[in-house]
Amino acid sequence: MADKMKTNRRTIQQQIQVAIIAISILSMLILGVSIFALTTNNIVENYQQDFYYSLQTSDNIVELQLDGIIEGMRNLLLKDSYMNALSEAGEEPGSYFSSKETRILEKSVNELTLQQASVQEVLSVSLNGKLYIHSKKSDLSQYTPFYKGGEILKQVWIKEARDADGKEIILGSNALTGKNDTLSIVKYLRGSQEGSGVGYLIVNVSKNIFKMAFENRGNYKTNCFMVINENMDDPLIYFQGDDSYKEEIYKAYVSDPSVTSQTPYIFSARESFVNGWTLVSGIKASELNAQKVNVGILIAVMILLLFGIGMFVAHMIAMKIYMPLKKLERTMQSVEEGTRNITEEFDDSEIGLLGQKFKEMVNNNLVLRERLLYAKIRQREQELHLLQEQINPHFLYNALDALYCMAIVHEEDEIATMVAALSDNFKLSLNKGSNLIMVKDEIQHIRSYITIQNMRYKDRFHLKIQMDEDLMEKKILKLLLTPFVENAVYHGLETKMGDGNIWITGQVNENRIIFTIIDDGVGIDDMSKLDKGYGINNVRERIELYYGENSEVTITSEPGQGTRVKIILAENEMRI
């Protein structure tokens, strides 16, 4: 029998382990296939999205560099000597600037070329076609034809610059020669007097500014970048990548940039801040396809690794589930054999918690009889206490009445008044054993209490009560207000110099009864003391018990000013 049970235990452990392994393998296969499908399907989309944002960053870099150059060009407008030299040259005959004008122009534009490393040449042109070139290059022979006869004013961009009305225009190649080694920024210069033109400013900028902006190629080998302007005769403004397939990839893009399945290239493009320019990133589709193979291999390796880890974890989980079951079975068997006090300890797993509950149930059964016997004894004691309470009040009433009569006979009016107040206070406190009392009786109980206290303290305390008439006949829990009045006298007024006042108000608002008790005593420095008092906490507990959660007691106090108690009772939720 024991051997058979042992065999069954092994079978349970093995079944748990096999189930966990099977679920793990199935989950890993589904996860691996899903990841592979999602990853490979999104490789193209991810490339296009990633490099779209990369192109945006590149565009911002180019814009930042060109903005710096344009700012330098605008600063030349503020230099009167430069503007005057251009203006005077435009009014003078001849094909060349004077030596004086040349020195002024040289000095003015030299600052721009020094500040901006990418600026290669600065060309100043007067309205009558005179040309001055400040260049970092020594060979300026390519510009020789433009010195004669106002040849330069025949260029197409002259009209474009005038139409731009002083705004800079950016050309994708050299404005004069059309060569693709530089780009040109052209500006029509207006003078300060009525905005009349004084000439033209051309700044040739090295296309190395694109090289810096496009230096991030990611981890791709065949990735390339292009700047294209379809409005130009030669639309390809800039290309960065392997020049051997420059024409091929440009033609592939121009054919239809939205089709990636029919071309060997994949593109990502965005419009530049320069009007008409498009920034393009391209890559061979074969390189992205190679990534799919790498992803598949990586996923396969991860699945194998996870399978090995899953085998180990499955064994550990099976043991963790099986061992508490074995312990619980052993405990139940010992109880079956007669053990009544279980000392076995269980872990915090679900099975362990089940074993702990079973242990608590068995151990608790040992004390149930003792608790039952104790409860019966307490019941008998309470019955005896109630009987004594029914006897003792009669004795006290008779004693107080005798004292009252003796005080009257001996004409001790103060003693008679105090005894009468004490008798009323005692009768109202007992209330014939009822938990409920009319509001008017509770108020009378408070008056009796204040009367007794004034006998002690020479009429120092003044009580002022204002209640709604329909509230006086309503029943509330007895001793609901008195503890707060006692607290006001004891904590607030006794220690105060001179007289003290207590105001009690009551009103009915829809289904709520609202009482406020206010004193002008010394106040309470530490409100936490109230939580330590039995009387206040007892009232709060009774209110919550009989009037529900929508009822509350709020106490506020300010040292030197007094204390305010607000009691809200949900009359419609009263549970008596």
From TrEMBL:
<keyword id="KW-0808">Transferase</keyword>
<keyword id="KW-0472">Membrane</keyword>
<protein>
    <submittedName>
        <fullName>Sensor histidine kinase YehU</fullName>
        <ecNumber>2.7.13.3</ecNumber>
    </submittedName>
</protein>
<dbReference type="InterPro" id="IPR005467">
    <property type="entry name" value="His_kinase_dom"/>
</dbReference>
<keyword id="KW-0902">Two-component regulatory system</keyword>
<dbReference type="Pfam" id="PF06580">
    <property type="entry name" value="His_kinase"/>
</dbReference>
<dbReference type="GO" id="GO:0000155">
    <property type="term" value="F:phosphorelay sensor kinase activity"/>
</dbReference>
<feature type="domain" description="Histidine kinase">
    <location>
        <begin position="477"/>
        <end position="573"/>
    </location>
</feature>
<feature type="transmembrane region" description="Helical">
    <location>
        <begin position="16"/>
        <end position="38"/>
    </location>
</feature>
<dbReference type="GO" id="GO:0016020">
    <property type="term" value="C:membrane"/>
</dbReference>
<dbReference type="InterPro" id="IPR003594">
    <property type="entry name" value="HATPase_dom"/>
</dbReference>
<keyword id="KW-1133">Transmembrane helix</keyword>
<keyword id="KW-0418">Kinase</keyword>
<dbReference type="InterPro" id="IPR010559">
    <property type="entry name" value="Sig_transdc_His_kin_internal"/>
</dbReference>
<keyword id="KW-0812">Transmembrane</keyword>
<feature type="transmembrane region" description="Helical">
    <location>
        <begin position="295"/>
        <end position="318"/>
    </location>
</feature>
<dbReference type="InterPro" id="IPR050640">
    <property type="entry name" value="Bact_2-comp_sensor_kinase"/>
</dbReference>
<dbReference type="Pfam" id="PF02518">
    <property type="entry name" value="HATPase_c"/>
</dbReference>
<dbReference type="InterPro" id="IPR036890">
    <property type="entry name" value="HATPase_C_sf"/>
</dbReference>
